[in-house]
Design goal:
504 residues
Length: 504
């Protein structure tokens, strides 16, 4: 009798442990490896932005020498400056091609496959620029910048989609913001190794482009062993088994039925997984409302002055009274603060929410640009120091708010079949405006001086008002809940939402 009681107690305890709910780990090894390998593209994006800044004077000397030897043309300093500005402007325009190419490829290739193609473009671009000095060819340099600009545009569309689709609802914000975090780390790292004392000298600047090639090799090896996006496998490829296998690897649990059910529901409200055209995206009132939000958040970042400060920050600090060497150090400090700001956003975005980070960051940006515009006009050392501190505050605020939240909203607001098209449209707007603002800033700065920062302040406060009134909080919400919210909004305005329902 006693023995049987012990037996029953042991059986009851065993059943208890077997049947109790498994603790679900949000972050698994497979997810971390996928996250790390995909985010190498973000690092390469940032590196490609920063790597051209520090050694720019030596690259322009290379232009002068190459043009003189091959075309017997003596180039003036003004012409070299215009040529250098054209390189940045054309890079932004070429990124458009990358964004549209990614949108096209994502409709029939997996997210991983497109990231692999991106790696090829990054490798080709950096290899060509690394060889341009030995070949003494300015054309090789330019083709190299075209290649990694295409990769830049493709990465900006593809990687955030992949990251959002492999993450859980609870970790989606953190995982998506790591893309921007790695981009800022890339900018900072390239600015450091690009110093004259490291690799940014006249004799060694082309070696700066060897570093990304090692990163790309690591990425290809790691990514080839990572799972494909479960959402892509289920919705686009209609492969339920493969989607379940991918989820099992990413979640490290046998209980993925709830997540699969959510994907099936999303599949059933989409157009059989086919990507939407631009016309369909604009005509659908529910999707159009989301598109307006992503466009405004894109404008708030692109027209914020962030890109201008990133490129012209050294000259801004020099004009504020800093010696050039100190100005370069402060520029690196600004990039470092950008990394810190993005890290803060990654930690807070799933706790505080998207909307508060975005709104309050815009308010701080508004105040910062007002201070910059006011203090740069002062001749006192105190005013110049205040302007410099305001620029640093601005950089942190951009990283915490618009830079992090914008990318996240694009990947969160849209269903799978609309996501790539929406991302490419907003990227197109971003790149056109980026190139235009970067090209026009020196002209506008000469014409209006520090008053140009008041224009940026007006943009910041306008975006903050828009965010307060129209941007919903998406923290912890599934795509089905987000979709339901916008459908109800469309019904309230008297516009019927037309969504073709398909059976899985």
């Amino acid at each position: 009798m006693g023995g049987n009681s012990v037996f029953h107690v042991e059986m009851d305890m065993e059943d208890l442990f077997q049947n109790r709910p498994q603790k679900r780990t949000s972050v698994t090894l497979a997810l971390l490896i996928s996250l790390f390998s995909a985010n190498i593209s973000g690092f390469l994006m940032g590196y490609s932005v920063g790597v051209l800044n520090q050694p720019s004077q030596y690259i322009q000397k290379f232009f002068y020498r190459s043009l003189h030897e091959h075309y017997h043309r003596v180039t003036t300093e003004a012409e070299l400056t215009e040529l250098w500005g054209f390189v940045f402007f054309s890079n932004c325009m070429v990124r458009l091609i990358g964004a549209q190419l990614a949108s096209f490829l994502l409709s029939f290739l997996g997210r991983k496959d497109v990231i692999m193609i991106i790696a090829v473009f990054f490798f080709l671009g950096n290899f060509l620029i690394s060889c341009c000095v030995a070949l003494d060819s300015i054309e090789t340099f330019y083709v190299g910048t075209v290649a990694f600009s295409i990769a830049f545009g493709m990465s900006n569309v593809t990687v955030p989609i992949y990251l959002s689709e492999i993450s859980t609802v609870k970790t989606r914000g953190f995982v998506s913001v790591t893309f921007i975090l790695n981009l800022t780390i890339g900018v900072l790292f390239s600015s450091i190794v690009g110093l004259d004392s490291i690799l940014g000298s006249q004799e060694h600047w082309n070696y700066l482009f060897d570093i990304p090639m090692f990163c790309i090799l690591i990425q290809v090896v790691l990514l080839s062993n990572c799972p494909e996006s479960p959402k892509y496998l289920l919705i686009n490829k209609k492969n339920y088994t493969a989607a379940k296998e991918a989820l099992l690897r990413l979640r490290r649990t046998k209980n993925v039925d709830k997540e699969l059910d959510d994907l099936v529901q999303e599949k059933n409200i989409e157009q059989s997984g086919n990507k939407l055209s631009t016309k369909e995206l604009l005509l659908n009132s529910s999707l159009r409302r989301r598109l307006y939000i992503t466009i405004v958040t894109t404008l708030s970042l692109t027209l914020s002055g962030n890109n201008v400060i990133s490129i012209y920050s050294t000259s801004i600090f020099v004009n504020a009274g800093f010696p050039r060497q100190l100005a370069q150090s402060v520029t690196i400090a600004a990039f470092a603060l950008g990394v810190v700001g993005t890290a803060i956003a990654a930690i807070l975005v799933d706790k505080a929410g998207r909307k508060p980070l975005y709104f309050y960051s815009l308010i701080v940006m508004f105040i910062s640009t007002i201070i910059v515009g006011s203090c740069l006009e002062m001749e006192s050392q105190l005013g110049k120091m205040a302007a410099s501190l305001a620029v640093l505050t601005f950089v942190v605020s951009v990283a915490i708010g618009p830079a992090s939240v914008r990318t996240l909203l694009v990947s969160e607001l849209f269903t799978s079949n609309a996501k790539a098209k929406a991302a490419s449209l907003t990227a197109t707007i971003s790149y056109v405006l980026q190139g235009t603002m970067i090209f026009l800033f020196p002209i506008l700065n000469r014409r209006f001086g520090a008053s140009i920062f008041y224009m940026y302040a007006l943009i910041h406060i306008s975006a903050a008002i828009f965010a307060w009134l129209f941007i919903p909080e998406t923290k912890g919400k599934t795509i089905m809940e987000i979709n339901s919210y916008f459908e109800k909004k469309s019904v309230k305005t008297g516009k019927k939402v037309y969504l073709r329902v398909s059976n899985f």
